[in-house]
Design goal:
Length: 412
């Protein structure tokens, strides 16, 4: 599956990345992780903390798949609002989901002091603006829901938005506790730390087939076998080639990174910016005064057509940047790319076991908050593999119904 098209910026920021060998022999482990993107990196790092015997393989370079196209926005809020989550899943489950996202964000913000390679994880606030006046009541309701359940939220009217930004919108929610990152460096920093903690890492190692046994799984690769008691599949959107999830949908999305600006426009606290419209636009800055913009999602097409669409869609993204920030008029896009992007119909990721794959677990962090979902998955699955029951996994079941259900009994 061809995941990305165009020219992506992150590899240029980390030219001397660690490299790892290909697997050339038979090995055994307690846990095999398939996939060296954000999900696999989080899982490997978390297992290394417990001293578990683990192996990670990737058929490409580490971070060479969808993580290479990640735009690095990390938020507590989701594509699906807390109000909508409560309406769909019930109050207890909706609030639990948002609390898990907040806990995951806190864990991510705690990473930099624990990693040997700088991951460039930077705390940020977020602005969610009303795309139209008709969206203002929904924003106000979401503000009331968030604050009622202990989440930080400020409701800003049009005047306050205009006082803090180059643009004005009918209303907005301003929230704290989010972050931005360089996803390429973040994946490498996590895997580097996992490797130093004993996890065996193999690049350019393709899993050819699997055999499932009573005692575990045998993974056959190009040039060796891996005997694992458990397997965690962290293959991102390519999981849909292995098994088709009924509630998953793959689309195309696009992004640009501008050339550095001599001076950033009026942009309060360099916040992350997004909107209520669906599909939505989003914007962030970088430490070297570039602007990243993304969106213009559209139905999945073949990779060759996406390659052509990169130019036109990214030109439209540049126009959106100039419309919001007139001071940036004339800025050029140094990087422009398109990528495969996965969503789910109910707005939750898929995390956990599947009845057709014994001894296996899946990390499918589909949605705009994939890095945060990967941290949630790593925590839940690492505990599960260690024998601790995590009933929160019921929220993310691969065979779930979207009907509201009682909240899982969460252990203290």
């Amino acid at each position: 599956m061809r995941l990305n098209s165009g020219h992506m910026p992150w590899e240029a920021t980390f030219k001397n990345r660690p490299v790892y060998p290909s697997l050339e022999e038979d090995v055994s482990c307690d846990c095999l992780i398939v996939g060296g993107g954000m999900g696999g990196a989080m899982m490997a790092y978390r297992l290394s903390l417990s001293g578990a015997s683990a192996v990670l393989i990737d058929k490409r370079d580490i971070a060479g798949g969808s993580s290479h196209a990640n735009t690095g926005l990390l938020q507590i809020a989701n594509d699906k609002s807390l109000t909508a989550c409560i309406n769909t899943f019930g109050e207890a489950n909706g609030v639990l989901f948002y609390k898990l996202c907040r806990e995951a964000l806190d864990n991510i913000l705690d990473l930099p002091g624990k990693l040997d390679i700088e991951a460039r994880i930077i705390p940020r606030s977020s602005l969610l603006y009303a795309s139209t006046p008709e969206d203002v009541p929904l924003l106000r309701q979401e503000h009331e829901t968030l604050t009622a359940h202990g989440f930080h939220s400020e409701f800003w009217d049009a005047d306050k938005v205009g006082a803090h930004y180059s643009f004005s919108k009918p209303a907005a929610l301003y929230s704290k506790g989010d972050a931005e990152t360089n996803p390429f460096r973040m994946v490498h920093s996590l895997i580097d730390k996992a490797h130093s903690g004993g996890v065996r890492i193999y690049e350019h190692t393709r899993a050819v087939r699997y055999e499932y046994h009573a005692e575990g799984v045998t993974c056959y690769t190009d040039r060796g076998r891996i005997f694992a008691k458990k397997v965690v599949f962290a293959m991102g959107y390519e999981t849909q080639e292995m098994k088709k999830d009924r509630g998953a949908e793959l689309i195309n999305t696009y992004a640009i990174k501008t050339r550095p600006l001599a001076k950033l426009p009026k942009w309060h606290e360099r916040s992350l910016i997004w909107e209520t419209a669906r599909p939505y636009l989003y914007f962030r800055t970088t430490p070297d005064n570039c602007i990243i913009a993304g969106g213009k999602d559209e139905q999945l097409t073949d990779p060759e057509r996406r390659e052509v669409r990169v130019l036109s869609q990214c030109r439209r993204l540049l126009e959106e940047v100039e419309a919001l920030f007139p001071e940036a008029k004339g800025v050029e896009a140094e990087y422009a790319w398109g990528a495969l992007f996965g969503t789910t119909r109910d707005g939750l990721p898929f995390i956990g076991p599947h009845p057709d794959y014994p001894h296996c677990y899946f990390i499918e962090g589909y949605g705009g908050n994939g890095t945060v979902y990967s941290m949630i998955a790593a925590e839940l699955l690492a505990d599960t593999l260690a024998g601790r029951r995590r009933p929160e996994l019921e929220l993310f079941s691969l065979t779930r119904s979207t009907k509201p259900s009682p909240a899982p009994a969460v252990e203290a």
